[in-house]
Amino acid sequence: MSATILELTGVGKTFRSADGHLRPVLQDVDFHLRDGEIVALLGQSGSGKSTLLRIMAGLVKADHGQVRYRGQPLFGPARGISMVFQSFALFPWLTVQQNVELGLEARGMPKAEREKRAEAAIALIGLAGFEGALPRELSGGMRQRVGIARALVTEPDVLLMDEAFSALDVLTGERLREDILELWQDGGMPTKAMLVVSHNIEEAVLMADRVLIFASDPGRIRCQLSVQLPRPRNPESADVRALIDEVYALMTAGASRPGRGHGAVETGAAAPPLVERLPSADVARMDALLELLAEPPFNGRADLPPLSEESGLSDAELLPVAHALALLGLAQLDSGDLQITPLGRRYVEGPNELRRGLFGQQLMTHVPLIGHIRHSLEQEATGQLMDTPVRRLLSEHLNDEEADAVMKTAVSWARHGEVFEYDYNTGKLSVPDGDALT
Ligand code: ADP
Ligand code: MG
To answer: Which SUPFAM superfamilies does the entry mention (predicted)?
Structure first.
């Protein structure tokens, strides 16, 4: 077995939310990154992946546990570890060359040496000839290459890539990924190990020797899958497709309440909490996916990869929709397959009013937050309420951005199910006109 470069034991991190509540974001994370390997990390947004990477890079301190880099406890940013972010804050007034050299300046390296190294890194990443260009003169893909050159110029031992390809269009992202893999394969870069956070299951399977699946609330490693295929890997090959299928299955196992991750399922926790992250799926997509699933060739049951292909939704888009359907009991997720339930069938086959009625009924029983809002509204003679208590409740558990996302999803679902109405301008919640539920 190869030497361990980076080692995390029992790492935990708690953040304080805006209203002062403590929220565990990472718990008991044990992880080894070994010489010569690429590891991919997949997990829901908000599960703590970026925080974990920052801890590994020494940019953020863990509250619990230990991080060792080449056997030594890590205190503060480590020289041998570089991070690539989703989008780079390149300095707009500096040229490509100057932006890349910045990575070295902090080290007090002589100017001539800095220039030489930056030129080499720029050439390595395919931008030779653009040294004098300003960021605004470059495409998004080229700017991201500058960011990667800035990370590589320090000749890092470990490269941590945080959704480095996800802000790019599909083809540009693929090109860049392939180029990085080629550099890695040819020994063109000095890096000994890479950890890649991705949103994209295919990307993870094409790149990594191991795929880790992260659970949320608190974030921890749920399981891993090793990928022993030689690189470059053909995304169309049966081996790759089978692995993608397997990862889908692992990511959706027991996932009817995805917001709470799987710890809750494993420990047999009882009632779902009032506040949970809701899969951000819009109703039109849920309807379209359920219709597609019901029809031939799927006839009610589909593997997620072909469903992704047929629906034109990427995995990152498909998974929340599938999770939402499962949460509402309209479909079931079972080892990477999505299967329509009898209720889901009634829903797709029904006229619009029936759909709305069924949807509303499922929201009341399966989404505690929506049930709670509705019950609170029914206590009011006017059938109206300000959103303040609901917002407060959300902010006890979630940060502002997440709270907004949950509210937005809950409102759009509740509107479709005619459970409640919400006016974003006035912050007023109300029972819908001509209410069918009371
Ligand atoms: P991911 O990268 O998986 O989307 P993050 O690591 O960015 O997740 O965030 C995990 C959780 O920690 C989120 O709820 C986020 O809001 C919260 N969080 C991250 N950084 C901070 C911080 N500095 N202060 C408070 N909360 C934070
Ligand atoms: Mg992140």
So the answer is: P-loop containing nucleoside triphosphate hydrolases
Question: Which one of the ligands is nearest to 220 CA?
Answer: 1
HEC letters along 232-274: CCCCCCHHHHHHHHHHHHHHHCCCCCHHHCCHHHHCCCCCCCC
Per DSSP, the three-state class of 320 is helix
- Tell me how far apart the terminal alpha carbons of the chain are, to the nearest angstrom: 65
Q: Whose CA is nearest to atom 22 of ligand 1?
A: 15
- For 183-238, what is each residue's pLDDT tens digit? 999 988 889 999 999 988 899 999 999 999 999 889 999 999 999 999 999 999 99
Question: Residue 362 to residues 91, 244, 292, 373, 416: CA-CA distances in angstroms?
Answer: 50, 31, 21, 14, 12
Say if CB 304 and CB 322 are below 8 A apart.
yes
Give dist(CA 289, CA 429) in Å, integer.
29
Q: Is the CB of 395 under 6 A from ligand 1?
A: no
Going along the chain from its start, the domains and CATH numbers come out as 4-252 (3.40.50.300), 255-349 (1.10.10.10), 367-430 (no CATH)
CB of 15 closer than 6 angstroms to any ligand 1 atom: yes
Taking only the tens place, the pLDDT of each residue in 150-190 is 999 999 999 999 988 887 777 888 888 999 999 999 988 88
